[in-house]
Amino acid sequence: MNNFNTVVALLGGAILILGLGSKWLSRSPLPPTLLALVVGVLVGPAVFNLIDPEVLGDRPSLMERAARLTLGIGLLGVALRIPRSYPRRNWREMLVLISLGMVLMWAISTTLVFLFLGVPFWMAALIGAIITPTDPVAASPIVAGELAEENIPKPVRHAISFESGANDGLGYVFVFLPFLLLTLPTREALSHWLTKSLLWDVGVATLAGLALGYVAAKLLQLAERRDAITSEWRLVYTVALALLAVGAGRLIKSDEVLLVFAAGATFTQVISQSDRENEEHGQEAVNRFFAIPIFILLGTVLPWRGWFELGWSGLLLVAAVLLLRRPPVVFLLRPLLRDIRTTSEALFVGWFGPIAVAAIYYASLMEHRTGEPVIWHAVSLVICGSVVAHGVTGAPFTKALGRRLSRQERTSGIPPKNVHEAHDLAR
After folding, report:
1. H-helix or E-strand containing 397?
2. What residues contact 209, with CB distance under 8 A and at least 6 apart?
3. Are 132 and 125 in contact (CB under 8 A)?
4. What is the chain's pLDDT, residue by residue, as a tens digit (427 residues)?
5. What is the separation of C-alpha 382 from the centre of its chain, rounded to a whole number of angstroms?
6. Could you tell me which residues belong to the region Disordered (predicted)?
7. Residue 302 phi, psi dihedral angles, 5° rounding
8. Are the beta carbons of 244 and 191 closer than 8 angstroms?
């Protein structure tokens, strides 16, 4: 009980302190996620031992549940951030990025894990699948907020947001294919993957999410027409929708991550634009509140001994994944992505594919099911590398992109007020 009270007090205190400097942090090379991770390391067994995660319960189960809840809240926030017309106007480009793009990133990640860690091929494919999706929680500080709005064109921000939301759910089929091939005979594994993973887990989750989001939006509209709901309850309503979707996905034993995103995407298609804007800001605040604890918890459960056993191969894997998993894929697919107009934008989108909460969820889930600690050792090291690298470069690279685009627009002779207008004029 004392350990639980310590956890609650430390989480509340950390969020309180980070919130006081949030405006400065949004423009600094020390984002809240990185500071939260450092706090977790300090209060965990590695340093001051104020929190012993073993007392809280089974570590894989604890992290899986915490990540699942954080993802649910974060994914609905992503859906609210994307304009209503964006999926209809850009579905071809997004389909390329979340299908062909994911396949290529999975292949590259698998190859890197296999070469650097020397694990069996299907174990490498499993770890590679876990680190393939772009994380929506870690991507939010990059594409949301005043700094992002000033420097990153809207289409680029929307592209990163939509991809990070959609590919987390689709990552389920990439993760479960190697898992099934590791645990079942080949024919049985492929049959299970086609019928259960694709048809039920993805297909039913998508349909259930679309239906849930539509019904929730219609009920909200009905309540508003009858003047039955107050403005204070609107934010509560969207958070409750995320929780309902997460719980429903688990109850029907389907892909709850995809179900949440589908529900949020449909919800935003039905409610009005003004309502979406009001809820988006509130939802972003809720996202930040849930994001800090998961990174503090991550800091307390880092497998230092497991990292030491990986040695230099683990560090080389992190560097290779960050540099080779995503940037080459974005450059290869750039001719098919009309929202990425310039080399600067391609570099930005290629670099900022953070690996965080979704990887925590899938790694914890797979470690629990396989009993293989190397999954958590490798994935947690890559996550920390991503949190540090993408966190430290977030504000500087965002400012650099804004300056670069402004110079390009001045050179082209277009006099827009900001890079967003220039981007829209060019399109």
Report:
1. helix 373-412
2. 245, 249, 258, 259, 260, 261, 262, 263, 265, 266
3. no
4. 456 778 788 888 888 888 787 777 766 777 888 999 999 999 988 898 888 777 777 889 989 999 998 988 888 888 878 887 888 888 888 888 888 999 999 999 999 999 999 999 999 999 999 999 999 888 888 887 788 888 999 889 988 888 888 888 888 999 999 999 999 999 999 999 999 889 898 899 999 999 999 999 999 889 988 888 887 787 788 888 989 999 999 898 888 888 998 898 899 888 866 555 556 556 667 777 788 899 999 999 999 999 999 999 999 999 999 999 999 999 999 998 888 888 899 999 999 999 999 999 999 999 999 999 999 999 999 999 999 999 899 989 999 999 988 887 777 655 444 445 445 444 4
5. 14
6. 404-427
7. -65, 135
8. no
d(CA 190, CA 266): 31
CB 400 within 8 A of CB 364: no
- Cβ atoms of residues 348 and 397 within 8 Å: yes
> Is residue 119 classed as helix, strand or coil in its secondary structure?
coil
Task: Print the SS3 string covering 168-226.
Answer: HHHHHHHHHHHHHHHHCCHHHHHHHHHHHHHHHHHHHHHHHHHHHHHHHHHHHHHHHHC
Q: Which two tokens stand for residue 209?
A: 């999410």
Tokens representing 120 are 């069996």
Q: Which domains does the chain have, with CATH numbers?
A: 2-22+30-53+62-426 (1.20.1530.20)
CA distance 238 to 367: 32
Which residues, including other chains, have CB under 8 Å from residue 197's CB and lie 6 or more apart? 172, 173, 176, 177, 180
- Per the document, the length of the chain is 427
Cβ–Cβ < 8 Å for 139, 81: no
Please give the Cα distance from 291 to 305 (Å, whole number).
Answer: 26
321-360 burial, b if ≥16 CB within 10 A, otherwise e?
A: bbeebbbebbeebbeebebbbbebbbbbbbbbbbbbbbbb
Look up tokens 């009001």; give the residue.
278
Please, how many CA atoms are within 13 Å of residue 81, restricted to the half-sphere of its CB?
36
Query: Are the beta carbons of 51 and 43 closer than 8 angstroms?
Result: yes
Amino acid symbol at 164: S
Question: Where do we find the tokens 């920390």?
Answer: 384
Judge whether 369 and 58 are in contact, CB under 8 Å: no
Q: What backbone phi and psi angles, to 5 degrees, belong to 85?
A: -80, -15
Tokens of 66: 């915490």
